[in-house]
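User: I've been trying to design a sequence by hand for this structure and keep getting stuck. Would you show me what you'd pick, starting by listing the structure so we're on the same page?

Assistant: Good idea, let's start from the same input. This is the structure you sent:
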């Protein structure tokens, strides 16, 4: 999992769907959390013509800067290539979050994600790609198949993931996280949990590897040790 180091400027990009394009949704809340640590601006792509970005929403005052390019669109598919990708991501990002699946086509989503990842590799080869595993839509079983397809694709590609679905499934307040049947089915609590999960994944210290266990000695090892330590006979 790539981390956004707190001691240097960084650029984060989000390629997502309607679950992440609102000013009250999790991407902006992630920006607000980062604003507690550093000067952050979140720029959302224009929803009407996709030709540019709205004025940034700013958080925090302290260096170093973090820029978040939020290229999430209502009804978007994870298939952004060529010139369109350059327009969506006008600056080289350190980390790109792919956040799709809840309303995707389960039969097409893997191929679409592959094309986008290939385009990212060509345009911004240093960018680290991370897959956001979205929670299923409440009371909509049809959302589970494409979400599984996204998870399987991430595993097959060997990409790091941020498991928001698991955070929702294990949250004590899970009944209050979503409101079925609404245009924006996440509640304020759901948006906050999604943001906290993403922020924690991008800022938590890397785990310290456990000490490597000493392998049991082989017969040859025992023999060499015995020869080296044997005392001369008297």
């Amino acid at each position: 999992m790539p981390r956004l180091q707190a001691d240097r400027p960084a650029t984060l990009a989000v390629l997502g769907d309607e679950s992440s394009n609102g000013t009250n949704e999790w991407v902006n809340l992630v920006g607000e959390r980062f604003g507690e640590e550093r000067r952050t601006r979140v720029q959302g792509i224009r929803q009407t013509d996709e030709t540019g970005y709205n004025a940034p929403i700013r958080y925090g005052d302290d260096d170093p800067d973090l820029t978040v390019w939020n290229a999430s669109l209502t009804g978007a598919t994870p298939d952004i290539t060529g010139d369109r990708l350059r327009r969506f991501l006008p600056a080289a990002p350190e980390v790109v979050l792919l956040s799709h699946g809840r309303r995707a086509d389960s039969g097409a989503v893997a191929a679409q994600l592959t094309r986008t990842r290939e385009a990212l590799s060509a345009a911004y080869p240093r960018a680290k790609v991370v897959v956001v595993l979205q929670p299923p839509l409440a009371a909509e079983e049809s959302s589970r198949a494409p979400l599984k397809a996204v998870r399987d694709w991430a595993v097959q590609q060997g990409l790091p993931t941020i498991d928001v679905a698991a955070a929702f499934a294990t949250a004590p307040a899970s009944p209050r996280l979503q409101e079925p049947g609404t245009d924006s089915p996440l509640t304020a609590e759901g948006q906050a949990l999604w943001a906290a999960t993403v922020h924690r994944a991008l800022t938590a210290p890397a785990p310290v590897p456990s000490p490597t266990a000493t392998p049991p000695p082989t017969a040859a090892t025992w023999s060499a040790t015995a020869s080296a330590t044997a005392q001369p006979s008297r």
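That's my pick for every position. To get oriented when you compare it with your attempt: The radius of gyration is 23 Å. The longest strand covers residues 10-16.
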